[in-house]
Write a sequence for this structure.
C-alpha cells in the first residue's frame, strides 16, 4: 500500500513537472553575435564618401555597391539598404551592432538620412531602425512604399507560447517628425513608440498570384518610456480572433490595405499580403513575422533619437 502511494506520488510529481516544463528555441542569428560589414562608396554627386552599413549574418566584409541577399542561412533583414535612384548610389544605415555584456546586440535608431547633391538636392529622410524576419530587395530604386521592398516573414509551422528577448530603450522628449525627402518636414504632436511583435499567419496564393493570409497568432508590445537597464521580456502569443481579449489593442489588428506588408509570390513578384481574416484558434501557421523597430510602423515618421536595443530572440514552447 505504501509502495503504491509512493509510486502515485512520484507519478503526480513527474506529471506536474512535465506540465510546467518549457522549451526555449533560439531564433537563428538572434543573439546578434555575427554581422556582415558592407562598405559602399556613394556617388560623387552626393559627396563620394564610403559608408559602412551592417547586416545580420556570418562575420564577413563586403566592399562595393552590391545588392545584398541574406547570407549563411540568416533569416534576418534590416532597414539598412543600398539604394540606386536615377543612377545615384546611396547607403542608409539605422541598425548597427552594439555591446551587451560580453557580447553583441542590435541597436536600432530613428535618424535623419541627409542627402545633399551640389546644391541640386538638399533633403532629410526620417529612417527608423528596423530588423525583421525576411529580406530586403536591393538595390532600392525609390522612396515610394518602403514595405514593398521588404519580403516579410519566413516559413514556419509551430505554435509557440511566447516570443522572448532582452531589450532596453531610450525615448527622447519631443514630438514626431515626418520627412520623406519631398516637401517640407512636418511636426506631428506626440511621441513615437518603439515596438516588437510576432505574427503567425496561414498564407495561400490564388491563381493570379495574390497572397492571402489569415492571422493565426498575435503578440505585440510597444515601448513609450525609457528603460535604461537590460530587461528580459516575454510577449505572449494569443491565438485566433483576439479582438475580444482583455489585452487587445487597436494596433494588434489585421494588417491590410495601404499598411499591408509584402512577400514574393510563386512568380517571383513582390505583392501585398492580404491579411483578411482571423483564423481558428487551433490552426497551424505557414509563416512567421517577427519585427523590432525604433518606430511604430508609419513610413518616414518618428521621434529622432528614439533607440531600441534588442538581443537574444527566442521562441518559448
Amino acid at each position: 500500500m505504501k509502495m503504491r502511494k509512493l509510486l502515485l506520488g512520484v507519478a503526480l510529481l513527474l506529471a506536474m513537472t512535465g506540465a510546467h516544463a518549457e522549451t526555449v528555441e533560439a531564433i537563428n542569428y538572434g543573439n546578434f553575435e555575427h554581422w556582415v560589414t558592407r562598405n559602399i562608396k556613394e556617388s560623387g554627386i552626393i559627396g563620394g564618401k564610403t559608408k559602412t552599413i551592417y547586416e545580420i549574418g556570418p562575420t564577413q566584409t563586403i566592399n562595393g555597391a552590391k545588392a545584398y541577399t541574406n547570407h549563411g542561412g540568416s533569416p534576418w533583414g534590416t532597414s539598412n539598404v543600398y539604394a540606386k535612384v536615377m543612377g545615384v548610389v546611396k547607403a542608409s544605415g539605422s541598425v548597427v551592432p552594439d555591446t551587451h555584456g560580453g557580447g553583441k546586440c542590435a541597436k536600432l535608431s530613428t535618424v535623419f538620412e541627409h542627402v545633399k547633391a551640389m546644391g541640386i538636392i538638399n533633403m532629410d529622410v526620417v529612417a527608423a531602425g528596423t530588423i525583421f524576419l525576411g529580406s530586403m530587395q536591393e538595390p532600392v530604386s525609390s522612396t515610394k512604399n518602403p514595405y514593398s521592398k521588404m519580403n516579410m516573414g519566413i516559413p514556419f509551422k509551430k505554435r509557440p507560447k511566447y516570443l522572448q528577448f532582452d531589450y532596453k530603450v531610450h525615448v527622447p522628449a519631443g514630438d514626431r517628425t515626418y520627412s520623406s525627402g519631398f516637401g517640407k518636414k512636418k511636426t506631428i504632436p506626440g511621441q513615437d513608440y518603439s515596438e516588437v511583435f510576432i505574427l503567425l499567419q496561414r498564407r495561400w496564393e490564388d491563381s493570379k498570384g495574390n497572397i492571402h493570409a489569415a492571422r493565426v497568432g498575435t503578440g505585440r508590445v510597444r515601448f513609450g518610456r525609457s528603460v535604461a537597464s537590460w530587461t528580459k521580456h516575454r510577449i505572449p502569443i494569443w491565438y485566433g480572433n483576439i479582438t475580444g481579449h482583455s489585452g487587445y489593442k487597436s494596433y494588434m489588428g489585421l494588417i491590410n490595405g495601404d499598411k499591408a506588408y509584402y512577400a514574393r509570390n510563386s512568380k517571383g513578384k513582390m505583392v501585398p499580403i492580404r491579411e483578411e481574416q482571423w483564423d481558428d484558434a487551433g490552426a497551424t501557421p505557414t509563416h512567421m513575422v517577427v519585427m523590432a523597430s525604433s518606430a511604430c510602423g508609419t513610413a518616414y515618421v518618428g521621434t529622432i533619437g528614439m533607440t531600441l536595443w534588442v538581443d537574444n530572440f527566442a521562441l518559448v514552447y
User: Anything to note?
Assistant: DSSP finds one helix and 26 strands in the chain. The chain has a mean pLDDT of 92. Residues 31 and 114 are 31 Å apart (CA to CA). The first helix runs from residue 2 to 20.
